[in-house]
């Protein structure tokens, strides 16, 4: 009898335990399905209302005050892996970044059936699009016969999903439908830096604006090199990849050739733009942060001289360097369109900095952080001098003293200008 009781108790205990476990399992399944449903609903609502980063207090944080909304965007999948690489669903791009996916139909309507062309590059045509929300964006379409363009598409979606800085062009979303791959960016209304340097459609950029643009670009590159984890090397810094917003603040664009820095990277195929390529990269096929620094140095000289690097800019610089003494003597290369309206000391400091950036030995080039510090200090000192001039009252004698010395602005150089690169941007002038 006692044995039967013990068996009954054990059986009941086992039954209770099994029942409890089944109840717990059922509860877990129920909560899982409810949670999944909530996440999907939340993602759907977020996709319809997520704002493009809006203006802040700083003029260079401009994007847009409107938000991407009713254009049927879909949030990207939550997988930590880029599913399109080597997979069978290459057209269905899934990004772990949360970048919005737009439908082909909505983009076709926004671009007037892909007729509003504003640019053309190796990647494919670029269209201006007006979304139903009123937001103006730029749509870059992958050329269907471009294998390299497809790789650049994948690179930009992967990188720009995690890179966010006020001096980088922001990726709004993408589309991968009907055999087409498209990237949607914030629209930069003033076009490229190259168009302002070389097109007669625009008023000449002041010296102060050129230095500010150089600082904006330097800050963007500093973020890529020192703020991104892992660091990113742009690999294609040039004036046509620097875009300007309505306030004439600069952003770095086109990350199709960009790569994350690798400690033991293997030599790669030579990619980039002639005139901006680091000689060390050409010889070793190894691209480093200092290769970006070299390209930035060329861009600095481009801002100073107003000459196209593909038309002998660096040869022109090397000839001028033979007659310079450290930080002085660079006036002869200055852009004649400035009309002599520049600060001689600043000009020589910028040119000397640029010359350090293009040093043949990469280890002797400054870092982007060093460059940002130099340019920031330069602009700060200029503002302090301007503030002192406006805040301190001057006597008649002081006025006469300031007016007596001759003008030390450099005479205009007589070099030949190279005209290139059209732009649809509006005319503008800016004085820092």
TrEMBL record:
<feature type="compositionally biased region" description="Polar residues">
    <location>
        <begin position="421"/>
        <end position="432"/>
    </location>
</feature>
<protein>
    <recommendedName>
        <fullName>Protein kinase domain-containing protein</fullName>
    </recommendedName>
</protein>
<dbReference type="InterPro" id="IPR001245">
    <property type="entry name" value="Ser-Thr/Tyr_kinase_cat_dom"/>
</dbReference>
<keyword id="KW-0723">Serine/threonine-protein kinase</keyword>
<dbReference type="InterPro" id="IPR011009">
    <property type="entry name" value="Kinase-like_dom_sf"/>
</dbReference>
<keyword id="KW-0808">Transferase</keyword>
<feature type="compositionally biased region" description="Basic and acidic residues">
    <location>
        <begin position="405"/>
        <end position="420"/>
    </location>
</feature>
<keyword id="KW-0812">Transmembrane</keyword>
<feature type="transmembrane region" description="Helical">
    <location>
        <begin position="6"/>
        <end position="30"/>
    </location>
</feature>
<keyword id="KW-0418">Kinase</keyword>
<keyword id="KW-0067">ATP-binding</keyword>
<dbReference type="GO" id="GO:0004674">
    <property type="term" value="F:protein serine/threonine kinase activity"/>
</dbReference>
<keyword id="KW-1133">Transmembrane helix</keyword>
<dbReference type="Pfam" id="PF07714">
    <property type="entry name" value="PK_Tyr_Ser-Thr"/>
</dbReference>
<dbReference type="InterPro" id="IPR008271">
    <property type="entry name" value="Ser/Thr_kinase_AS"/>
</dbReference>
<feature type="domain" description="Protein kinase">
    <location>
        <begin position="112"/>
        <end position="379"/>
    </location>
</feature>
<dbReference type="InterPro" id="IPR000719">
    <property type="entry name" value="Prot_kinase_dom"/>
</dbReference>
<keyword id="KW-0472">Membrane</keyword>
<feature type="region of interest" description="Disordered">
    <location>
        <begin position="392"/>
        <end position="432"/>
    </location>
</feature>
<dbReference type="GO" id="GO:0005524">
    <property type="term" value="F:ATP binding"/>
</dbReference>
<keyword id="KW-0547">Nucleotide-binding</keyword>
């Amino acid at each position: 009898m006692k044995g039967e009781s013990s068996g009954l108790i054990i059986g009941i205990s086992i039954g209770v335990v099994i029942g409890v476990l089944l109840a717990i399992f059922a509860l877990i399944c129920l909560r899982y399905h409810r949670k999944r449903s909530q996440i999907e609903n939340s993602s759907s609502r977020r996709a319809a209302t997520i704002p493009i980063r809006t203006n802040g207090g700083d003029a260079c944080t401009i994007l847009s005050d409107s938000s991407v909304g009713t254009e049927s965007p879909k949030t990207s999948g939550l997988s930590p892996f880029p599913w399109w690489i080597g997979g069978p669903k290459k057209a269905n791009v899934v990004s772990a970044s949360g970048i919005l996916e737009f439908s082909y139909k909505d983009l076709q309507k926004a671009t007037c059936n892909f007729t509003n062309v504003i640019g053309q590059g190796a990647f494919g045509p670029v269209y201006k699009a007006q979304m139903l929300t009123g937001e103006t964006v730029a749509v870059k379409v992958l050329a269907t016969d471009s294998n390299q363009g497809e790789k650049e598409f994948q690179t930009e979606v992967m990188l720009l999903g995690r890179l966010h800085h006020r001096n980088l062009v922001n990726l709004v979303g993408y589309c991968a439908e009907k055999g087409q791959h498209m990237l949607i960016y914030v629209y930069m209304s003033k076009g490229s830096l190259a168009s302002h340097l070389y097109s007669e459609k625009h008023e000449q950029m002041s010296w102060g604006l050129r230095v500010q643009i150089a600082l904006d670009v330097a800050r963007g590159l500093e973020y890529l090199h020192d703020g991104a984890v892992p660091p990113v090397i742009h690999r294609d810094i040039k004036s046509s990849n620097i875009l300007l917003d309505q306030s004439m603040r600069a952003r770095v664009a086109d990350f199709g050739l960009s790569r994350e820095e690798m400690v033991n990277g293997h030599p790669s195929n030579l990619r980039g733009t002639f005139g901006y390529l680091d000689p060390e990269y050409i010889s070793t096929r190894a691209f480093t942060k200092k290769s970006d620094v070299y390209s930035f140095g060329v861009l600095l000289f481009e801002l100073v001289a107003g000459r196209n690097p593909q038309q002998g800019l660096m040869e022109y610089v090397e000839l001028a360097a033979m007659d310079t003494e450290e930080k002085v003597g660079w006036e002869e290369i200055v852009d004649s369109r400035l009309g002599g309206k520049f600060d001689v000391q600043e000009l020589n400091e910028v040119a000397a900095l640029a010359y350090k950036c293009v040093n043949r030995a990469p280890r002797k080039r400054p870092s982007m952080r060093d460059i940002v510090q130099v340019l920031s200090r330069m602009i700060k000192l200029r503002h302090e001098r301007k503030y002192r001039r406006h805040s301190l009252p001057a006597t008649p004698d002081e006025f006469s003293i300031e007016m007596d010395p001759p003008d030390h602005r450099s005479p205009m150089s007589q070099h030949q200008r190279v005209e290139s690169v059209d732009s649809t941007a509006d005319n503008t002038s800016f004085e820092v």
